[in-house]
Amino acid sequence: MGREFLLGAVLGEWGADDHDNLFYLGGWVASGVIVVGDLRDIAAAISRGDLVGTGLNLAALIPAYGDAAKVAEVVGKFVLKHPELLKPAMVLLVGVAPYTDEAAEAINAIRKAHGDEVIDRLLINGITEDELKVVVRSNGNLLRTLAVVKRADGKVIWLEEGKLGTAAGATSWVYDKEGGTGWIHIVNNHIINPNSGNQFLPLGEQYVNRDLIKDLILDCAKTGTMDPRSSIRYWKKIDEEHFLLVVIGDNGYLRTAYPLSVSKGKVPPHIRSLFS
After folding, report:
1. Is 247 helix (H, G, I), strand (E, B) or coil?
2. pLDDT tens sequence for the chain (276 residues)
3. Helix crossing, 54-61 with 36-48: angle to 10°?
4. Cα–Cα distance for residue pair 128/225, rounded to 1 Å
5. Distances in Å between the alpha carbon of 17 and those of 1, 77, 79, 87, 259?
6. Which residues are paired to 254 by β-bridges?
């Protein structure tokens, strides 16, 4: 990102055809507004990931001595070459998003392309399109989403079909050590695991049914107790011996879930105390 920013500052319009990203645009804009030393420092900050918008905002939000017109001209040239970046360029360089609801547009596009039932199947148990918009804005894939729940604190959580990581492409069962997430990852590691069997079955004989397992996981995501030591972990006490752990990304994506046993020392003491 820092490299693209510097290239934009050095090459400007000459290299715009080959650099279709906002960091290049930011460098191009900033090159006419702030001094070279500042360009270098901003690029370094961007490369560290701590001030991604600094150069863009300095260039566009604090124009002086005619720089506003210069910014508009540069943005206009860049958008002509890369029209798909019009909206993000407006957001980053002007500081105001266009008055459109892109999440709503995405939902309507899915309805048109795949039929109403693809969206309507998710609108159950109090879930509305407002919650689906949160999923879209959080980079969720509604076409692959199995269910959406909303916690009492307003956090929206969704479970997708998911993907396998290290077990992807295996011709026989392989434990998915890393990279996998979502329902297929849960099934692979904790339901059809030939070494341990269905790990949910000790929670009750009804959990031979995968739909009931899925419902249990979603219930934990919705009503479970957040781990005071980890904001992405949610716990539900099933009985004196078993707890269910659900791991949820900061954006609300349900990454994995599995039961843990007290007698095997898998449930941390602070969690046992929390539920005692």
Report:
1. strand
2. 778 888 887 887 778 888 888 778 777 777 765 555 555 555 555 555 544 445 444 444 344 444 555 666 677 777 777 777 766 666 555 544 444 577 888 898 888 888 999 999 999 999 999 999 999 989 899 999 999 999 999 999 999 999 999 999 999 999 999 999 999 999 999 999 999 999 999 999 999 999 999 999 999 999 999 999 999 999 999 999 999 999 999 999 999 999 999 999 999 999 999 998
3. 140
4. 24
5. 17, 10, 11, 18, 53
6. 248
Are 8 and 24 in contact by the 8 Å Cβ rule? The answer is yes
Helix ranges (DSSP H) in 115-239: 116-120, 129-137, 182-190, 210-223
Residues 175 and 261: their CA atoms lie apart, in Å, by 20
42 in Cβ contact with 51 (< 8 Å): yes
Instruction: Collect all residues with Cβ–Cβ distance below 8 Å to 138 and sequence separation of at least 6.
Output: 156, 251, 252, 253
The predicted model scores a pTM of 0.65
Helices (H) and strands (E) in the chain, counts: 12, 6
- CB neighbour class for 210 (10 Å; exposed up to 12, middle 13-18, buried from 19): middle
Compute φ and ψ for 25, nearest 5 degrees: -60, -40
DSSP string, 158-193: EEE--B-STTTT-SS-----SS-BHHHHHHHHHTS-
Give the whole-angstrom CA distance, residue 124 versus residue 147: 9
Token pair for 256: 């994995």
b/e string for 4-42 if b means 16 or more Cβ within 10 A?
bbbbbbebbeeebeebeebbbbbbbbbbebbeeeebeeb
